[in-house]
Amino acid sequence: MIYDTAIVGGGMAGYSAALTAKSLKLHYIWFADDGFGEKTKKAEYVRNFPAFTGGGKEFCAALEAQREKEGVMRTAKRIDGVYKTGETFLLTAAAETYEAKTVVLATGVQTRPSAGEGAYLGRGVSYCAVCDGALYRGKKVAVALYSPRFTEEAEYLASFAAEVLCFCSFDCSFRSTNITVIKERIVRVEGERRVERVVTDKGEYAADGVFFLTESVPPSALCGGLECEGERVVTRRDGSTNLKGLFAAGDVTGRPYQYVKAAGEGCVAAYSVAAYLRAEARV
Length: 283
Description:
Layout: E1 2-8, H1 12-23, E2 28-31, H2 38-41, H3 56-70, E3 81-85, E4 88-93, E5 96-105, E6 125-126, H4 129-132, E7 140-145, H5 151-158, E8 163-167, E9 179-182, E10 186-190, E11 197-200, E12 204-206, E13 209-213, H6 219-222, E14 228-229, E15 232-233, E16 246-248, H7 259-282
Parallel strand pairs: 1-2, 1-5, 5-16, 6-13, 7-8, 7-13, 8-9
Antiparallel strand pairs: 3-4, 4-5, 10-11, 11-12, 14-15
Helix pairs in contact: 1-7
């Protein structure tokens, strides 16, 4: 099955793109979590969205009610790779793959502190345990765990690695005896040619590799060749990027980080996808 567009990201921009894609009768797939993102849900008060007053919890409830009424479908998968393959894109979610003619990136921005891991992509830094876990058979790996939902990925790593150091700020427990929980925060990755250690806010630990298990993968790591400026994807006014058929919307395109801006960009990106598909059909 080849979709017209694959929308990656469960926040406001992703939802707006999916809502618009459905109204435009595009064959879409929307990859999202089940609650419009923890950051939105925990907002104390939403001030900048027209006609809405209240907190993040009420805002998410209103969005969910609309989603159900409009029949906007979502797929609860975490995309860990986007690859241009000829005329289409291949998206990977652990061991599963999806194909689409276009992609809308609406992954938001990382709320975690930067650890400079981008310099070690392909040299010991990974964002997918299922994809790269087997590379660390018998080795020692560090895991930066940002959500309890990724504990199973840490368990999966433990089935290959000799030792797993799991860095997290919340209470968690594991079945595997070779996982050590460390209540510290990774602030830096170091090494010569490859990852050799992680530095935390309290010390440093030797490691052959480090896995950042978080809600979304940084765009530069998610899609090779994508033009970025820091954490921001470079886009034109229509949401298009330097990669033909790939569009971006919301916080991932830069400031201001506002719901109303994200919603507008998601809508624009979906219309741009439709225009792109029409143009390609005429070629």
